[in-house]
C-alpha cells in the first residue's frame, strides 16, 4: 500500500468529523475500518500459516502537512485494527519504503544507522562517508535500519513485538526460481521536480559527470526532498501555512493571490529605489513560479500518466534501477521485472519497453487514498497490490473516483504475465466482491470522496482569508 497520507484532511483514511475541517486522529474513518475488513477477507484465502508481510511504500504518514502526533495517531489506528483479535492481518515485521511526504523517516533511520556504525569503529580508524540508500535485496548479513518513531508508536498498541524496517528508495523481491524480480519504490524519482538539485548541478557545472547511480540521485536531492516535502510543513505555525499553500494549488484565483503576496513581500525587502521596477518584474515572475508546483503528476487529473512522467519513469528504470539490479543480482535485467510504485494517486497497470531490459517491464501503480482535486477525477483512486510466494502480482483496485455513487466497486486488474494471471484467477474464485464487506467498503468510499470534494473549497476559503491584508 502507498499514499495513505494518515493525518491529512484530504485522506479518506483519516477521520474528519462532519461540520469540521480538522482530523480527529483517535477515531478511525469508516473507510479505514471497512478497508481492514476487506483485507481480512483476502488474508483468509492465505493457506500459509505465517501472515503476509505488509509493505508500505511511501507517503503513509503525512509529515509534510499534518502535525506529527496527528499523523502518528492516525497510523496507529490502522495498526490497531490490523492486529486486533487472535489472527493478525500481517507479520510482525513491516517494511517501509519512504516517499517524499515521509522522507524524514528515512533520514532519521539512516543517521541512527550511521551513528551505530561509527560507534563500532576501533579507535583511530577513519570514519567512512555516510550512505544514502539501502541495499535493494535484504541479505541475512544485512542490518536493515528501523523506524524508531513508528516502533515507539507500535510499542504502545499491543503486546506483540512489532517492528518497522526502513528500506530506501527501492525494495527488491525475487521469486524462488530466480526468474522474476519485483522492485517497489514510492515513485517520486519519476518526476523531475524531485531531482531539481541534480538538474541545477548539471546546469551550473556542466563538466561534472551526471548522476547515474541510485545513491547519487538521493545524495544530490535528499536535503531538498526532506526540507520541502517532509520537514517544512512541520515548522510550527509556519508549517500550517505550508499546508494551506498545498490546498491553494487547486484554485487559480487563490494561487494568483498567493503569488501577488509573494511578489509584494520580496519587493518590500528591497531598497526604495529598486521597488517599482522590481515589482513590475516580480509580480509576473511569482505568478509564473508558484503554480509550477501545481504541475506535479497528481495535479494532472484527466490522464493516467503524463508524457513527462513516462519519460521520468523510463529514466529511473533504465538508469538507477537497472544499475542497482546489475550490481546486486548479475543478469537481473534479463529476468521478468515488475515495478510497483505509487505517488501519482492514479492507479494503473501497463507494460513498458525500457532501454536496458530485453523484456517489457510490468508497471503497477497503487494510486492513493486522498482527494486532492476540486472536481471528480475518474483516473484517481487506490489499489492494494498483492504478491504471492511465487512473485505473482495482483492489483486489487479498491476504487476510482466517480460522480455516480453506485458505480463504486472493487475489482481485480490484469497485472500482466501468466504468473500474475494465475494469482488473479485464484483470488477471483475466492473473493466475492458483490457481497459484504466489499459492498459496504464501496458505499463508504463513495460518501468519503463526496465529503472531501466539499471539504477542499472550505480549506481553500480558510487559506484565502489569511492572504488578505489587514
Which tags fit this structure?
single chain, 470 residues, alpha/beta, five-stranded mixed beta sheet
Structural write-up:
This protein is α/β, with parallel strands linked by helices and 470 residues long. The chain has one domain. The chain is built from 12 helices and 11 strands. The strands form 3 sheets. The chain has a 5-stranded mixed β-sheet with strand order 4-5-6-8-7, with no helix packed on it. A 3-stranded parallel β-sheet has the order 1-2-3. The protein has a 3-stranded antiparallel β-sheet with strand order 9-10-11. Helix 7 crosses helix 12, helix 8 packs antiparallel against helix 9 and helix 8 runs parallel beside helix 12. The longest helix has 30 residues. About 4% of the residues have low confidence.
Low-pLDDT residue spans? 238-242, 273-283, 285-289
Q: Major sheet, described briefly? A: 5 strands, mixed
Which sequence of strands runs across the widest sheet? Answer: 4-5-6-8-7
Overall residue-averaged pLDDT value: 85
**Which value, in Å, is the CA radius of gyration?**
23 Å
Tally of individual helices: 12
By DSSP, the count of extended strands is 11
The arrangement of helices and strands along the chain is HEHEHHEEEHHHHHHEEEEEEHH
Broad shape: globular
Distance between the termini: 45 Å
Number of domains: 1
Broad structural category: alpha/beta
Helix percentage range:
40-55%
Content of β-strand: 5-15%
Amino acid at each position: 500500500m502507498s499514499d495513505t497520507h494518515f493525518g491529512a484532511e484530504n485522506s479518506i483514511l483519516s477521520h474528519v468529523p462532519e461540520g469540521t475541517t480538522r482530523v480527529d486522529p483517535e477515531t478511525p474513518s469508516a473507510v479505514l475500518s471497512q478497508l481492514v475488513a476487506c483485507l481480512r477477507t483476502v488474508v483468509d484465502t492465505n493457506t500459509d500459516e505465517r501472515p503476509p508481510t505488509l509493505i508500505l511504500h511511501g507517503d503513509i504518514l503525512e509529515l509534510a502537512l499534518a502535525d506529527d502526533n496527528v499523523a502518528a495517531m492516525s497510523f496507529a489506528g490502522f495498526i490497531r485494527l490490523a492486529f486486533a483479535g487472535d489472527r493478525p492481518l500481517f507479520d510482525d515485521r513491516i517494511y517501509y519504503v519512504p516517499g517524499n511526504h515521509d522522507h524524514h523517516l528515512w533520514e532519521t533511520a539512516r543517521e541512527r544507522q550511521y551513528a551505530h556504525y561509527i560507534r563500532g569503529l576501533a579507535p583511530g580508524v577513519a570514519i567512512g562517508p555516510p550512505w544514502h540508500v539501502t541495499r535493494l535485496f535484504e541479505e541475512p548479513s544485512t542490518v536493515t535500519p528501523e523506524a524508531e518513531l513508528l516502533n515507539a508508536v507500535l510499542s504502545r498498541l499491543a503486546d506483540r513485538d512489532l517492528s518497522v524496517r526502513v528500506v530506501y528508495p527501492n525494495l527488491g523481491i525475487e521469486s524462488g526460481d530466480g526468474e522474476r524480480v519485483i522492485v517497489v519504490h514510492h515513485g517520486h524519482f519519476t518526476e523531475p521536480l524531485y531531482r531539481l538539485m541534480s538538474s541545477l548541478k548539471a546546469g551550473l557545472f556542466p563538466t561534472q559527470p551526471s548522476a547515474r547511480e541510485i545513491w547519487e540521485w538521493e545524495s544530490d536531492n535528499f536535503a531538498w526532498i526532506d526540507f520541502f516535502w517532509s520537514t517544512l510543513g512541520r515548522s510550527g505555525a509556519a508549517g500550517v501555512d505550508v499546508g494551506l499553500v498545498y490546498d491553494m494549488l487547486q484554485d487559480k484565483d487563490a494561487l494568483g493571490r498567493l503569488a501577488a503576496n509573494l511578489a509584494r513581500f520580496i519587493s518590500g525587502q528591497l531598497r526604495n529605489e529598486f521597488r517599482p521596477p522590481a515589482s513590475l518584474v516580480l509580480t509576473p515572475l511569482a505568478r509564473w513560479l508558484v503554480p509550477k508546483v501545481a504541475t506535479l503528476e497528481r495535479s494532472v487529473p484527466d490522464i493516467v500518466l503524463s508524457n513527462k512522467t513516462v519519460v521520468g519513469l523510463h529514466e529511473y528504470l533504465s538508469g538507477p534501477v537497472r544499475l542497482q539490479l546489475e550490481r546486486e543480482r548479475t543478469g537481473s535485467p534479463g529476468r521478468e521485472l515488475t515495478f510497483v510504485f505509487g505517488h501519482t494517486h492514479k492507479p494503473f497497470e501497463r507494460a513498458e519497453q525500457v532501454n536496458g531490459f530485453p523484456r517489457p517491464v510490468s508497471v503497477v501503480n497503487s494510486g492513493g487514498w486522498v482527494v486532492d482535486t476540486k472536481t471528480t477525477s475518474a483516473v484517481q483512486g487506490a489499489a492494494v497490490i498483492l504478491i504471492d510466494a511465487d512473485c505473482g502480482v495482483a492489483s486489487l483496485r479498491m476504487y476510482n473516483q466517480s460522480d455516480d455513487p453506485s458505480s463504486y466497486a472493487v475489482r481485480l486488474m490484469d497485472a500482466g504475465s501468466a504468473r500474475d494471471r494465475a494469482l488473479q484467477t485464484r483470488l477471483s474464485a475466492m473473493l466475492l466482491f458483490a457481497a459484504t464487506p466489499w459492498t459496504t467498503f464501496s458505499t463508504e468510499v463513495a460518501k468519503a470522496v463526496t465529503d472531501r470534494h466539499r471539504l477542499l473549497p472550505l480549506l481553500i476559503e480558510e487559506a484565502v482569508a489569511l492572504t488578505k491584508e489587514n
